[in-house]
Amino acid sequence: MWSRLETLVAEAARDTSARALVLCGSQAAFVSGADIGDLRAMQSAADGVAYEAAVERALVAIEQLDIVTIAAVSGACTGGGAILAAACDIRIGTADSRVGVPIARTVGNITTARNVARLAGAVGRSRALAWVLTAELSDAAAAERCGFFLEVVPDFDALIARATALAASIAANAPLTLAAAKELVRRLSRVAEGVEDRDLLERCYGSDDFREGIAAFIEKRAPRFLGR
User: Fold this and answer.
1) Which of 21, 119, 122, 225 has the fewest CB atoms nearer than 10 Å to its CB?
2) Who's near 195: CB < 8 A, 6+ residues apart?
3) Residue 73 contacts residue 53 (beta carbons within 8 Å)
4) How confident is the model at residue 105 (pLDDT cuts 50, 70, 90)?
5) What ranges do the domains of the chain cover?
6) Which CATH class name applies to 2-33+43-154+175-219?
7) Using CA atoms, how far apart are residues 56 and 114, in angstroms rounded to an integer?
8) 74-83 residue pLDDT tens
């Protein structure tokens, strides 16, 4: 998915007629997190670092677009889904949306410094940290209150209609102003690029706890994390 998304965004970047990009999943889920098959196939901590690098390439491609990006979120928006949505300029959700980063109770990995910065930019440092520490999901109303969603609509049909209308409205605005505003946000966000996080990625992806989390997920049981 991340590789295909990177390709599609590159196509949008080359399309001089494109003025907005709406990202949408299914009615059941925007993105519900990493594919457990991908995680299960990892043989070492280096595989985890490489996976996060692939995710980063797609997210950077989205953030480098000069046109507006809108995440139209329905259902589950968890883990990498929450980070993907946070990389977009605007997020709209449905009433049944659930948002969070439950990795501390699922597979026991960690995300990158830049992804934490993306979440913090969307909802603030305290909320972003709470999502990781508690592994709890916020409902649509809570996600709107903390600023993750610009607005919440009743259902999937309303989501598509609203996202399309908002994209058209923004696309009618001055393109140089939009591009400049997005570049200002990119410049403000660059502090996270210098944060070292490889040691933390390797520690989590190379741990017994990560392998236990994968096994527990597949076996549909609660993981037994031991901190090693």
Assistant:
1) 225
2) 113, 114, 117
3) no
4) very high
5) 2-33+43-154+175-219
6) alpha beta
7) 8
8) 999 999 999 9
